[in-house]
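Sequence in, structure out. Go.
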Amino acid sequence: MLESFSRDVRFAARQLCKSPGFAATAILTLALGIGANSAMFSVVEGVLLSPLPYPQPDRLVMVWQSRPNVKQIDISYPDFLDWQRNSHSFEQMAAFTFHQFTLTGSGSAEHVSGMRVSSGFFAVLGVKPILGRGFSAADDLQNGAPVAIISDRLWRNRFASNPHVLGQPVTLEGADYTVVGVLPAGFRFWIEGDVYIPLAQNAPAILMERSVHGIGGVARLRPDISLAAAQSELGAIQQNLDRLYPADDRNLGIELVPMKQQMVGDVRPTLLLLLCAVGMVLLIACANVANLLLARSTARMREFGIRAALGASRGRILRQLQTESALLALAGGVLGLVFAKGAIYAVMNLLRDTLPRSEGIQLNVPVLLFTFLVAIAVAILFGIGPALKGSRVDILSSLKSGERGST
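Output:
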C-alpha cells in the first residue's frame, strides 16, 4: 500500500513538472486563497478564540456603573470600597486607572505608560511577580509608603536585569518610589504598562468624592457564583447606596461584563464577516483550479485510455488524479503560509493600536493545523469533479482520438 502510494506521488510530481505553467497557475491561485484564509483565521484565533492570558479567565469580569440612558460609566471609588466590603460573590475586587508617568533618575528621562491600581489588582488577575511581591492593603493607603511594581521590560532596559532591584528607588513625577516587585514578561492589561503604583497612595482628594467617576473595576467571580447572581447582589448593594447617598448615587446601576467580551468589544461580527468573505475567495479559487483540471483531464483522455487498456481500473486512475490534486493543494498551502505571514505582519503594523488583543495574532500551532486541514479540504473540493470525469474512460473512443497525431 505504502509503495503504491509512493509511486502515485512520484508519478503525480512528474506529471506536474511536465506542465509547469499549469502547475504554477494552480498553485499560485490556491496559495492566494489559502493564505488569505490562514491570515484571517490567525486574527480570529488571536482575538476571539484564544483565552485571556490569566488563570481561569472565564471568571474575570469588568465592573461598571450605569445610568438609565448610559450602559457603562466609570465607577466611583467610594462606591467601589462599599461593594468590596459588602459583596460575597467575588473572590476579590480591584480598581484601576491608566496613567502616564515621567520617569527620571539614573539614565535619561522618559515618559512611560502605567497604572494606579488597588491592592488586590494582581491577585484578581492571578498574576504573581517574578521578583518581590504585590501591593498590600497597607501600601494602598493615602499615607502609605511610596512603592512601585515595574514591568519585566523596564527591569531589563532600565535596571539591566539586576536581581537586586528590589528596594532600589525609581523616580516618578519627581517623587521617589521603592521597587517592591517585577512582573512576568509579557504581562498586559489592555496596555503594556511599565510602572504600577497603589491607587489610593498620595491620590488627590477628589478621588474620595462619591460623585466623581473616573476609575475602572475588575473582579474574579467565586467558582459557585454565576454572572447573573453577582450582578443581582451588586445591584442590591448599589440600590442601598442610592438610598444612603441620593445626591450622588441616585439612578445609578451596575453592569458586569465578562472580561474577554469587554476586550473584544464590537469587533467580533466584523471579524467573522471577514472570515466568511475570505472563505468565499477560497471557493472561487477552487472553482478556477477545478476548471483548469477539467480542461487538463480532457487533454489527457488518450493517456487515460491507454492506462485503462493496460488494465488500470477506474479506482486506480481516480486515485492517481486525486494524488495530483493533493500535491497541488499541499504546495498551495505551503506557499499560502508565506503569504499569510506577510499579511499578518501588515495587519500588525496597521491595526496594532486599534485591534483588541492584537498581540496574540501569530502563526501558531492552531493556525498551522487550520491551514493543513484547509489544504486537505481544498484538494478534495477542487479535485473530485475532474478526477471523476477523467476516470470515466471510453477506451475505444479515447484511443481513436489520438490516431491522427500518432503516425
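Check: Residues 402-407 have pLDDT under 50 and may be disordered. The first helix runs from residue 2 to 18.
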